[in-house]
């Protein structure tokens, strides 16, 4: 009888408890319990310091990286207007970009190329002609004159921004035909007539030659520079008056975007960086994180995170945000990952604002594409995300929840900065979710303004947040 009475008492107590709870309170308990079932994924395990582009200042000594690191602007797109106006166009925008929190700009290949006034620069002829020699049918490049380029770089430095040069050293174009004993044919490899008179070259400096038949890759049938040749090494990165040091010390570029690095071994970029210095990032078009990471370590360089790019495309456009749990370069090696949503070569992601909300709240060095910023997306929303990145996106990363429609991640803060929680919602309705923060008994808010909630975290650091349909919210301490 004792046991029977105890059971009756217990059942009565349980019934009384649930009857005393309102339906909303019961749902809150269930909702929180459901969220607690998700095992938090601690993605990175470093001390939390932000991505660094190397030196803490530009050549003027003014630029200082933000708490969250820097943001890069790709300051061009494919087939920008011809006519020599582009350097001036960009010059007119750098003040607004700097005010928005953009810390660096990546310019297209600046030297004279085979297609003269119409070239985007990826078919280089004369590395020392920035629009001041009459060759290949023009004096100015497609983008403008050397004077205008120098003015742009100077203006960017005045606005505390770094300037990165796009460097194409895999191949050349625009040489004259010459008999080539290594091929038994005529090849377009005679560059002895370059107008600058610097870095003259012939068939002996291109594959195939006395150093071998080929290197790691060729591009488009263009003459393939032989980096094993000491003469090529001297002119590209060793000589004080060579390409790299001229760009850095005379033209005042702060870093490099290396084009088509699949075309040559990583030691080339390693040696360039060791001899010339400056920030560098390689265009290694591959979604395999092992390949990206191995190259970055071997080249001692950052690399564009194509793995992240393709995962975002699958996640946002394929309605499966759980794919954001997968491996990416920024997760493997956050201090060598440059993230992006689109560029001059590829533009596949349609839900771009969701993708920007991802890269501007996560680790790595995020890049903004010119047309996204200036033409296609809401600039105010991008400026808000840039501010959030610079001021709140600190510390290592933990994924708090993910499914087809929802993704929640936490930046864990660094050096007194509290970090943030980002909530991305790919569904067509508002979503709410309980998540665990790093803050106890603290009021938080959505720094995007998409939510008007000002919730206070519980003693156990849990709190309920919300996110708009096909949108995002970013939460941090209300201060």
From TrEMBL:
Domain Glycosyl hydrolase family 13 catalytic: 70-386
Keyword S-adenosyl-L-methionine: no
Active site residues according to the UniProt entry: 259 (nucleophile), 283 (proton donor)
Signal peptide: none
Cofactor(s) the record lists: Ca(2+)
Binding positions for Ca(2+) 3 per the UniProt entry: 405
Superkingdom in the source lineage: Bacteria
SMART domains given in the database record: Aamy
Annotated Ca(2+) 1 binding sites: 170, 229
InterPro entries: A-amylase_thermo, Alpha-amylase_C_pro, Alpha_amylase, GH, GH13_cat_dom, Glyco_hydro_b
Annotated keywords: Calcium, Carbohydrate metabolism, Glycosidase, Hydrolase, Metal-binding
Gene Ontology molecular function: alpha-amylase activity; calcium ion binding
GO terms of biological process kind: carbohydrate metabolic process
Keyword Lipid biosynthesis: no
Family: Belongs to the glycosyl hydrolase 13 family.
Protein name (record): Alpha-amylase
